[in-house]
Amino acid sequence: MMTHCDIKTDYNWKSKYGGMEANDVKRLKELEEEKRKLKKLFAAVSFENHAMKALFAKKVSDGRVEQPYAQSLKATSLSVIKPCKLISLSQATLYRQLLDWGNKDHETLDAIQARHPFI
């Protein structure tokens, strides 16, 4: 049984694999597969790197640094483990709500001061 292939296909095959042994072709295929995997890995790491640079490029002016970073980190599609370790931030910070203790303290102090005006 004789199979026929297109002249262009035959030319492309000869230009790519011409003069190679079967082992060389197999090795070439393995290297191309490894290159594909490494490109994919590099793209993922590069994306994480750019996203973290953008995340930490923000200037945070108040004393509570964790919450603005936590909110920005929630908005990204990145894993939270690596950025949290990078800035020594507890992952629990991402999931708890920031309480406004100032208002509660003022209410308590006002109540105490009303009962004991000389303190």
From TrEMBL:
It holds the Pfam family HTH_Tnp_1. GO terms for biological process: DNA transposition. InterPro entries: Transposase_8 (IPR002514), Transposase_8_domain (IPR052546). Signal peptide: none annotated. GO terms for molecular function: DNA binding; transposase activity. Residues 21-48 form a coiled coil. Keywords: Coiled coil. PANTHER family: LOW CALCIUM RESPONSE LOCUS PROTEIN S. This is Transposase. It comes from Providencia stuartii. The lineage of its organism: Bacteria, Pseudomonadati, Pseudomonadota, Gammaproteobacteria, Enterobacterales.
